[in-house]
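Fold this complex.
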Amino acid sequence: EAGVAQSPRYKIIEKRQSVAFWCNPISGHATLYWYQQILGQGPKLLIQFQNNGVVDDSQLPKDRFSAERLKGVDSTLKIQPAKLEDSAVYLCASSLEGAGATQYFGPGTRLLVL
Amino acid sequence: SQQGEEDPQALSIQEGENATMNCSYKTSINNLQWYRQNSGRGLVHLILIRSNEREKHSGRLRVTLDTSKKSSSLLITASRAADTASYFCATDARGYSTLTFGKGTMLLVSP
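Structure:
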């Protein structure tokens, strides 16, 4: 079974530029999550999708972050414009059911904003 | 805000020793999960314990849950160098549909 795929693996941008991350969840997984993990901390949920609907985006900085999950499969997370404090690893995860189920994580995208 | 808090923040042991990590949380939960993260990689699910369970085993892992104290512990027996990683607890709070992670315990197992 293929795991959660993410791209790119690394990205370096300057502040005020825009960036987009892509995630392909495990086939058949209805729930998809985007997390932000700052160095030395645990993952913080940014947005959770159930199929192509948003379940929770309460911690997503909506003035600069946006996410979509077209057709309930792949998802993209965009930051525009980026700030220095956005430097982090962005993790995508998926699960068969809601948040109480086991989540399967991708390798993450490491973002450095200069 | 983070629901779970792991303790200790860092733990260094020798191969063959046991490692114990603790997690405390604030609100009532449906279940609690433990994940492992190797350096520069994504998280890997280790074990899930439901709120009506007190202890669970999986291979060299033993997890306990005390809902009255709002705490959990993860025991890794006969540790190996390959167990070197960060370990996170994550809680699924009642009334919420999201999982909240703690800050993690960094475990170093020396050969």
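The interface with chain A takes residues 2, 4, 30-31, 33, 35, 40-45, 48, 88, 90, 92, 96-104 of chain B (CB under 8 Å).
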